[in-house]
Specification:
Strand content: over 45%
InterPro entries: MATH/TRAF_dom (IPR002083), TRAF-like (IPR008974)
Region (Disordered): 1-22
CATH class of the largest domain: Mainly Beta
Number of domains: 2
Number of strands: 22
Organism: Sorghum bicolor
Helix content: under 10%
CATH superfamily of the largest domain: Apoptosis, Tumor Necrosis Factor Receptor Associated Protein 2, Chain A
Number of helices: 4
Protein name: MATH domain-containing protein
Domain MATH: 44-177, 205-333
Radius of gyration: 22 Å
CATH architecture of the largest domain: Sandwich
Length: 342
């Protein structure tokens, strides 16, 4: 989904070994559907995990099954699978699949690994694979190496013969890496801003976290406090039930705004190109959903912003990201360049 313009708004578990697992799908259809790196790439950017004797896992009680270790972009990872996960207020069993960065002694303890990736459940019969895309900042600490809980589809959907997910008592899962960068985590100062070293030609990347309590009581447009990144002042606007434009009522809308410079003539009539990632996450686990885009902000357009009218279904926010009615909104901003408007 592309970054959109908002105009005129001031705005986990132990490995189960009863099933045989392998990294290569056995059926031609599954192999054809694998998300593999192109032959010109030197570093692997995908992994597929076939589980034979899959019915034995379906009979197990709730718990996590780990894949073997695999390498992507010179880092070691593994997948975790749970076939008995639950959503809040839903009694059905769900399939949860998460990506975990393995312990590695080659990375500095202060390293952040920022990754965009897809988690997949392969349809081995018809090629209608289920894909779920995520962005996550992995860190080397024990509690920050996992991409977080992710209920994907109901187990009953997985088991349907017409779905093509289970063939010959085998099921295939996988991960496809879209983008990965590593950076040194700067020491945190007071407040909720954090710095990351220069990445991919953009200036120092900084993140601001907006703590939202009592999310369910919010109505209409909500504003974050102002914060400073790259010498500019910014703020976020959120619409818990969508903006008032047609068809968005069932979605949370989220935008980043650059505040008009106050008193600094050198910043008047100027603009900046930024790479922005807006995300929502709960306050306890690393469960997160993010959207990323590159946008030009103009200091003269007071109150205009960039973001997503359909950032996330409002129901998904309530089901997955609220902890005692509270959640976190994070804005991760990297400035690419400045420009003078004539």
């Amino acid at each position: 989904m592309d970054c959109g313009f908002l105009s005129g708004r001031s705005n986990h578990g132990k490995n189960q070994k009863s099933a045989k697992v392998a990294a290569i799908p056995s059926t031609p259809a599954a192999q054809a559907g694998r998300a593999v790196a192109s032959s010109g790439m030197e570093e692997k950017s995908s992994f597929t995990w076939r589980i034979d004797g899959f019915s034995s896992l379906l009979d197990k009680q709730k718990g996590w099954t780990n894949s073997g270790y695999f390498e992507m972009k010179k880092l070691k990872w593994y997948l975790q699978l749970n076939l008995k996960d639950r959503k809040s207020g839903d009694e059905r069993d769900y399939v949860s699949l998460i990506l975990v960065l393995s312990k590695t002694y080659d990375l500095n303890p202060d390293t952040i690994v920022e990754a965009s990736f897809k988690l997949l459940i392969y349809d081995q019969e018809y090629g209608r694979h289920r894909e779920h895309q995520f962005s996550h900042q992995f860190q080397t600490t024990e509690s920050s190496r996992s991409s977080g809980i992710s209920c994907t589809i109901p187990v009953e959907t997985l088991k349907e013969p017409s779905s093509g997910f289970i063939v010959g008592d085998s099921c295939v899962f996988g991960v496809e890496l879209i983008k990965l960068t590593t950076a040194a985590k700067a020491k945190h100062s007071s407040g909720t801003l954090s710095d990351v070293e220069k990445i991919n030609g953009f200036s120092a990347r900084e993140a601001y976290t907006w703590v939202i309590d009592d999310f369910l009581t919010l109505k209409g447009r909500c504003y974050s406090p102002e914060f400073e990144i790259g010498g500019r002042k910014w703020y976020l606007t959120m619409y818990p039930s969508g903006i008032d434009d047609g068809g968005n009522e069932e979605f949370l809308s989220l935008y980043l705004h650059m505040a008009k410079p106050d008193g600094d003539a050198s910043l008047q009539n100027s603009g900046v190109l930024v790479e922005v990632s807006l995300s929502i996450k709960d306050k306890v686990t690393s469960n997160r959903s993010a959207m990323t885009g590159r946008c030009q902000f103009q200091a003269t357009d007071d109150g205009d912003g960039w973001g997503w009218a359909k950032f996330m279904a409002a129901k998904s926010v309530k089901d997955w990201y609220l902890v005692k009615g509270s959640c976190l909104i994070e804005a991760d901003v990297a400035i690419a360049s400045s420009s003078k408007l004539e």
